[in-house]
Amino acid sequence: MKEFIKNNFRPFLTALGITAFVIICMYHTSCHITPEGITLITNDCKSAKIEGFKIDGSDIHVEFSKNVKVEQCFVVEASDDLEKVSSIENFHNCENKMQVEWEDDPDEFIIHYELKEKTKIGKCYELYSVVRDSAGSSLSFALPFFGENDHFPDIVISEINEAYSNKEALSEYIELYALSSGNLFGLELISASNERHYPLPDIEINKGEYIVVHLRGDENDKNCVTEKGSNLNLSKARGSVAARDIWINSSESALNSTAEIVLLNNKAKNKLLDCVMYCKKDYALSNKDWKTESLCKYAALCSDAGLWNKPCIPENAVYSNERKSISYVSRTNIEGLKNSPERNNDAKCWTGTAKSKMTPGKKNAW
After folding, report:
1. 254, 196 Cβ separation under 8 angstroms
2. For residues 342 and 295, what is the distance between their CA atoms, to the nearest angstrom?
């Protein structure tokens, strides 16, 4: 093992000071993450520590516990499965190194790294760097990140089915409508009741597309196909539509049938894009506020982001006047959104009905 390290990691080793190799686990780009979970191979406290980092497109900012200077850095394409392929293996197997420039900010203990080549959307990369402080101690680290998505679509939530039935093989879904073309990577759907996040894959979509995100899918079922290209007839699982199907690998309950807030979030830019609040009629009439902490939290986020035209409380949510429960909510103002930059969004823009009127992947009907 010592011989392997000596032969393959000579650029990361030095005869001076103490070297620590750090692997930073990161789940998405453009997120400020504190160094919880970072593992140092050495317990020596003299070397610099990483206090946090932020990735914004081709710019990577790493904050250290003390002033450091960069000795070496480069970027390589990495395995998309970091749980199976380690950073050491990525480093050892790399053939091409991407050029990186850097600039230090000694007053803030920050190093600004800048990639000089364009990355592929959704592709996993790793930044390798060695830094050294004035005492001679050095720190080597690997920072995984994803290629930047530089053209997000203008997209809205257009329909939701919260019902699930094993007998009917009916699965919850969230339908999206694309007001412009773009790539979905970096966007996610959130169900507030259980605080589950559903990241969307690297898929190019076209203006005018309906996209149906099925929230329960079996990765072992060959019929549950996420349609990433132009062929929209690949998915054959029950519930598949003529439009684009995306399957989330999960068997857990996705949406609450009593009260729910569904959000569309640009995680890469840390910006909420759209939301819809719905609940049973009895819930709306008997509760002045949401009954759970998670629903209250996300209602406040929607309010702060200006995504709902009225106060984000149950009485202003979508519910059905026809029946006590809702299994389906549909947006009624899609045509208006096509022709206006204004985003009217409240209970008047939605209708709640029964599952018999669902139109996944098609123009909404009510």
Report:
1. yes
2. 26
User: 65-102, pLDDT tens digit by residue?
Assistant: 999 999 999 998 887 665 666 666 766 666 788 999 99
Separation CA 265–CA 29 (nearest Å): 14
73 Cβ partners below 8 Å, 6+ apart?
Answer: 100, 102, 113, 127, 128, 129, 130
Nearest to residue 251, comparing CAs of 288, 224, 276, 226? 224
Predicted confidence (pLDDT) per residue in 216-273, tens digit: 998 889 999 999 999 999 999 989 999 999 999 999 989 999 999 999 999 988 999 9
How many Å apart are CA 213 and CA 157, to the nearest integer? 11
Q: What is the layout of strands, in order, in the sheet containing 110-115?
A: 50-56, 59-64, 110-115, 100-105
pTM of the model: 0.81
Strands of the 39-40 sheet, one edge to the other: 39-40, 19-23, 138-146, 124-133, 68-77
Output DSSP code: residue 98: B
Coil vs helix vs strand at 351: strand
CB atoms inside a 10 Å sphere around CB 255: 22
Residue type, 220: N
Place of tokens 């096509």: 338
Q: For residue 300, how many other CB atoms are within 10 A of its CB?
A: 12
CA–CA dist 350, 153 (Å, integer): 22
- Widest Cα–Cα separation across the chain: 77
